[in-house]
Amino acid sequence: MKNYKLPLFSLKKQANAARPKKNNWLRFFTLIATVGLITSMSACNDDDDALLTGIKPKGEKPAWGPTIAPEMQTVIEALDSLSKRVSLTSLTPQQARMAPTAADAAMAVMKNYHIAMPPMGVDTMGHTIPVAGGTIHARSYRPKTATGALPGIVYYHGGGWVIATIDTYNSSAQALAEQTGAVVVSVEYRKGPEFKFPTAHNDAYAAYLWVRDNAATLNINPAKIAVAGESAGGGLAAAVCLLARDNKVTMPVHQLLVYPIADNNTNTESYNKYADAKPLSKPLMQWFFNNYFRTPADGDTPWVSLVDMADVTGLPSATIINAEIDPLQTEGQQLAAKLKAAGVPVTTKVYEGVTHEFFGMALVVPQAKEAQKLATDELKKAFQ
């Protein structure tokens, strides 16, 4: 297979990132994710809505989220309980990768409220993708009942380019595969501070090219490949579209950007309004920038500062989903406006009462179910 090297940045030769050692607790959660216990937060039916009415928070609404929905607040309270309210910014990146996540909190809520998991509707398979300086891992999700060549979605997880894995965001990848009928390839790109900018962006683009070039093996229709991502992954998905256009290769047919990092400006309206929000705050975003960027100037490149620096003309149609209680809300909506002004078809919505990371919680948070349906509908349109 080819090693894909990008013309815009020269990379030093880098060894492949070694996976951090995991304690037994984290191994337990990773195992659960792998077999699909938390992944089945994806496709919930109308009967499940009745279960959500019993989810009630224990405390007062937080000062940073006076409009927070009860289900979302319950998840945040569970996260506080699991994490003992320890801020990730007080930890090293290696320690932060071991900390409880919003996905763990959602699973705890499901356990507490006896919310059953639907059976998995996908088969999964691991893949190795060659990149500059090594290889990265990916996992494909294929609907169990599907036959023939299907549309494809290259999915990039969140975590500020520093923390989290494809296991952490397993629920989102599975939801997209089950609900769109597409093969989803979730990419384990390398992260900072071990691998600084632009490594994650280079890996994201290499993974897109790999999926395109290996479409026959993956049983994917090469003419129907989209990109998708959450948070840092949303920014990566958008950057992949820029790179495909600029390198004159076939662009994705659609970009699904869920609360994307689209700027390096931490003084926007939503950054100031939700500076202390959970699970994502202004200090945490600054911590991510410090751990991924080589220098602050990296944040001024078009791949990161999409709102200010990127030329977005000629890019594929986009769906941009934002959470109300999220420092990234403003830049997501600014990116939507910029794409529209450039003539790019855009569907966008800000979901009220929810925080960053809500998208994969469809069995716990009603707005996540709605957001997944919007994403699915727009992807299906693009695949026609």
Going by CATH, what is the homologous superfamily of the domain at 122-383? Alpha/Beta hydrolase fold, catalytic domain
In percent terms, what proportion of residues is strand? 15-25%
**Uncertain stretches:** 1-44
Order of helices and strands: HHHHHEEEHEHHEHEHHEHEH
Radius of gyration: 19 Å
Named CATH topology of the domain at 122-383: Rossmann fold
Strand order of the largest sheet: 1-2-4-3-5-6-7-8
Overall pLDDT score: 89
Report the CATH architecture of the domain at 122-383.
3-Layer(aba) Sandwich
Under the CATH scheme, which class of the domain at 122-383?
Alpha Beta
Give the count of helical stretches.
Answer: 13
State the end-to-end distance.
30 Å
Shape: globular
Tally of strands: 8
Structural class: alpha/beta
What summary fits the major beta sheet? Answer: 8 strands, mixed
User: Into which percent range does the helicity of residues fall?
Assistant: 25-40%
